[in-house]
Queue: 2 jobs
Job 1
Amino acid sequence: MPTVTEILETMDYGPAPEASGEVMGWLKSRKTFGHYVGGEFTKPGKTFDASNPATGERLAKVAQGSAKDVAGAVKAARSALPAWSKLPGHERAKWLYAIARHIQKRDRFLSVLDTLDNGKPIRESRDIDVPLVARHFYHHAGWAEMLDDEFPSAKPVGVCGQIIPWNFPLLMLAWKIAPALAAGNTVVLKPAEYTPLTALAFAEICAEIGLPKGVINIVTGDGETGAALVAAEVDKIAFTGSTEVGRAIRTATAGTGKKLTLELGGKSPFVVFADADVDGAVEGVVDAIWFNQGQVCCAGSRILVQEGIVQTFTKRLHARLSKLRVGDPLDKCTDVGSLVDPVQLARVRELVAKGEEQGAVLHQAECRLPSKGSFFAPGFFTNVHPANIVSEVEIFGPVATLTTFRTPDEAVELANNTRYGLAASVWSENINLALDVASKVKAGVVWVNATNLFDAAAGFGGYRESGFGREGGREGMREYLADPSPRAKPEPEPGRLDAAPVPGTPGKGVATIDRTAKIYVGGAQKRPDGGYSYAVMGKAGQIGLAGLGNRKDVRNAVEAAHKATGWGQATGHNRAQVLYYLAENLSAREAEFTARLRSAGVPKPAAEVAASIRRAFYYAAQADKFDGAVHSTKSAHVTLAMPEPFGVMGIACPNDAPLLSFVSLVLPAIAMGNRVVAIPAQSMPLAATDLYQVLDTSDVPGGVVNIVTGARDELAKTLAQHDDVAAMWYCGSEAGAKMVEEESAGNLKATWTLPNRDWHAADGQGRGFLLKATQVKNIWVPYGE
Ligand code: NAI
């Protein structure tokens, strides 16, 4: 026993373990878990072990789900769907409230189970995970209650397949299940193989409260079970996990019509300016990268410190690091627990060793690690070269990199120097500076003078390769409601694409028609790279020629679009003015456009031009009105939900209503600040190429709208594959839609493959288009006390 003097000198804490008897008793009584399907646990067949990573001891045996098990669960969810989706929202809300209350009643039990299964400190499961789980169900009970008012005539998606990771086992379950149920969907959820136990305890809660059978189904298993769920007859897949698996799921669901949301990895910047509250920022690092052993998708894993304070900052960070208590996760004094599994430990060790080999210097807490379990001492790297593996790869362990910057511009450049875009944290006492950086950083969540704050009322999700879709709040609810589905209309045949030399091009064959539309790149008409054009046929034969664009033309157009950065920064008012001007100029040439469409044999030419003009005025009006929201989330904060443009978008238009469909797709995209590379109707591109002069005379800056004519699906493929295109809309054939979704997996661009429709109908325009043209950035700002 240490003496009182010794205790006072060291200020060591004695052990304060949370009791685990009740949970261990529960596990002992269950021993082996089957899947939870149709309101009952199945008889387990093949099983695997669920272990406590802090000790290595087995906690239970859990069934390994086969494709047949998954199919059975999907069937149960399908049978439960009609009754559940028809329940009035108020009735579904009652079930969600019941779940929330039961979570609260069992909070201690669930915290201990979460900690045993995952290795996270009890302080975190008890004070963060489980309270947020309850909050999520309460919040979404409210959405169920208000569904009809807030989302009039919206329908649930159907049966949702949900695949979750192991870092926040119960919280991720809540993020997935609560909105799905509120919207009237039924669910098959697969927890991660390392952490299946809280999901099974949750299943028991569902059974206990008498939730209608089949509404929630839990199938346990590994990646193969996950892949079987992706392939099953579900209407939506919601996935959280690694970018690699996210990419595989994107490819596997391409062309299936399954709605998809992906919440993937990150390498999030944590930017500290010289005028920051240094102690606050150091404490921020604790919550950013040492929280949950760094196994957090939005962990602030790249600390960027302004040069002037780096010494002070590093010194205090060292001091704080040395005070972290690493050890038994069940101990209430523990700050850092165990990684989730020996496999993860090996992965972290390997990455950290490679980082050191490549010259980075590791500063690690000098703590005595428990002799058993998957513990890794927290730390950070200095002397890190940008090309070092630890600068680029998500370590998913309690180790950050620390580098410096000089100016705010440099900070933004470094912050954005990653293929990810999940989160960012900005520390400065200068509100102008902090909010300026928040606006420039490419991330779905930005915390100002804070980090890792979450709330059910705020959306969460990434930019770039961190995935697409949002969880939480209104945006999250939308992901569980079916997209409005206008009656699909087959598009006319595109016609032949016979290449002919562009008139005047030296070489064989001279076309007899002088009306040749070039392509439009960077605000100028350009001869297509290949030097060829193709005949555009009208009612009475050929009515002109259009440039036959190729991959190089698409690449040039993307480059030109990239250069037009000012458009995204222009105010809504500026963009509205340009669009009004465009609408006016189009109206001034109404007769000419009508005649052109008539000669092309387009049905209802006058109506099409009139509708296009109206649509241009509509999106001009929306340019400064479609805006975000301010969420009331945590105390002392508000969360700004700002719809931001993607940047460069690709748009492939249908062979139908060639002017109206072009205007209906391109204008909402640019109204929101995107720059566009558009492929107009292959059969009648002249409707779009006639717009060149309208664009020129309407002050649309060069590079904002780029038009490449030619073989739509070939050009669309190049756009879908292009890493500098952030989002892609495709309206055409089913095969083309599948191709676009598949090819977009490279940089995980957000895609929207919409069926052709009657473009004259009311649903040819509206806020739905603007929603698809934007991604929401959630910015957490200090506000009040
Ligand atoms: P993972 O992405 O393989 O696992 C996440 C979930 O996906 C699990 O439920 C798993 O069973 C399932 N899964 C795996 N392969 C699948 C497939 N082909 N189809 C459908 N579902 C599949 O992540 P893993 O291997 O556990 O961890 C590896 C790395 O991934 C981590 O070190 C970390 O860098 C990253 N990761 C990121 C997470 C995040 O929240 N962003 C969460 C978990 C891991």
Note: The chain is about 40% helix and 20% strand.
Job 2
Amino acid sequence: MPVDTHCPYCALQCGMRLTGTTVAPREFPTSRGGLCQKGWTAAAVLDSPGRLTTPLVRTGGELRPASWGTALDTVARRVRALQDTHGRDAVAVFGGGGLTNEKAYLLGKFARVALGTARIDYNGRFCMSSAAAASTRAFGLDRGLPFPVSDLAGAGAVLLAGANPAETMPPFTQHLAGAELVVVDPRRTPTAEAATLHLQPAPGTDLALALGVLHAVVADGHLDKAYVAERTTGFDDAWRIAAAWWPERVERVTGVAAADQRRAAALLAEAGSAYVLTARGTEQHAGGTDTVGAWINLALALGLPGRLGSGFGCLTGQGNGQGGREHGQKADQLPGYRRLDDPAARAHVAGVWGVDPDSLPGPGPSAAELLDSDARALLVFGSNPVVSAPDAGRVTGWLAGLGLLVVADVVLSETARHADVVLPVTQWAEEDGTLTNLEGRILLRRKAVDPPAEVRTDLDVLAGLAVRLGQPAARFPADAEAVFDELRRASAGGPADYAGVTYDRLRAGEALHWPVPRVDHPGTPRLFLDSFAHPDGRARFAPVDHSGPAEAPDDEFPLVVTTGRVLAHYQSGAQTRLVPELASAVPSCFVEVHPDTAARVGLADGDSALVSSRRGSVVARVRAVASMRPDVVFLPFHFAGEGRANLLTNPALDPVSGMPEFKVCAGRLSPVEVR
Ligand code: SF4
């Protein structure tokens, strides 16, 4: 029986029809019948030989098969012992942006009620946190795209800053076909190849570039004065800084010609309908929130946000990167995108959960801080920080020092290999659940195939653990629709209000973008058309200035190392590296480098190179690419072993968002010594 569902990977959530394990694309507004190679091959992970099919418990130094009863009893007993000795916060929880809304919700409730720990965060902190912080600051609300993706089709111009959708979400590019495209990226990516104008700044200087384009907007008479006066506050303070960043000065810092900055300003201003979109390239910096804020300032100066046919948005990466940050697995939030430190929010959610609001812990540390804390145990659901966390070598050592590491996953990821207990869980096509895509639309992903016999849902796992930790069974339902109905009540009245979303409405194919406060409410595909979400209804310019990356090149490490993704793989690669077609397309880590830069250290295309930073070294195959800046090398972060790019990256954090600086560190290139 064919089942209409969605791809398990990125936030575009392309429409897919599954017949058994046979994938076919289907019409859906975000993907328009398209799938990328990850989507076409997604079913291979369902019956992959790498699939986990039984719980594993470490005994005698080895992970050995165990019954579910033994595995869950072991976890509960050791959690209790650690908390009895070291306090509630001795146990931490790490979630993922690929978890369904139901899982993210129940995980947050499990941490705060069953464990009573403040230490819960998730890998979305490494993905969208700077965009979320900047959007909340500017607009009073964070929904990645506050308009449907399909609105982009009418745009005259689109500026993509630090986004490479031609590789990360190829069907998305259909929506850009009619627009003049301005791409800001240190690399000449496939997206940049298709652009009208490619601005190629040095990594870590994009905030300065945004200031230069803003300067050109004002100096060349493109400022939308009426919009700025009626719909915004703070322009004067932002302009005071941008006034000192005239394009020629910006050219000296970024390497982008002043004329190109002015051309970008003119293309956007004269398009009639224009969008500014950002992604990880702007966000994954120690100044990521301010960098996104600088692009928002540009969009506000042009009068784009909250205007039909124009806008500002952030392209979400992970499949449920949007929903995953709305319902409680984030360190500072409660369901409905409520703040954990808001007494009214605590009272509301505690009421739904049937607990005393004062019993709920307060905000905890962000993901990278959590992975460097004095916690004694970590429970990981749907994440692989051994590969995806910054300064991954240090994180691996931290995990090894824990008294207890528990990993729930579909495959034996690199993190699971270090675990004391591994819990095999169901994946996308084997369970019901909802996700919220990059445009804030809630989608139902339905069960299409049976899971392996000894595999359970994450909801089952959480329910089983909660009961063993002394919680009433009724407080932790394991049925996805029952959990969603509770989530609806917990989110009611919050910014991300799902109260009116039901499984029946989703089964009927209704396009419901949050907020949906009532069951007779049609949803909100476009936000901010009348007013922004701040009390005065106005958007806020941010007075942001360029300060540069946390770590600059020097004599010892003379290159800038930047990281990112490739078409064939997804995130830490734990799933896609198991798919034969994807693994053979890009089998191992590579380093993109200008041929002259490679030649200077005796390397040529195809050679093995050692890429080093102050934190570690990676072996990668040289890809000599003439369009690379001579001062920059690029590595994808999807690989493990000696090709683990995050061994290099800098854990310096954005002070607002907690985002690590994945996009810039100082590095060195050398031949691999043959012994
Ligand atoms: Fe679509 Fe993203 Fe899946 Fe590719 S990975 S098929 S772009 S949802």
Note: The chain has a mean pLDDT of 96.
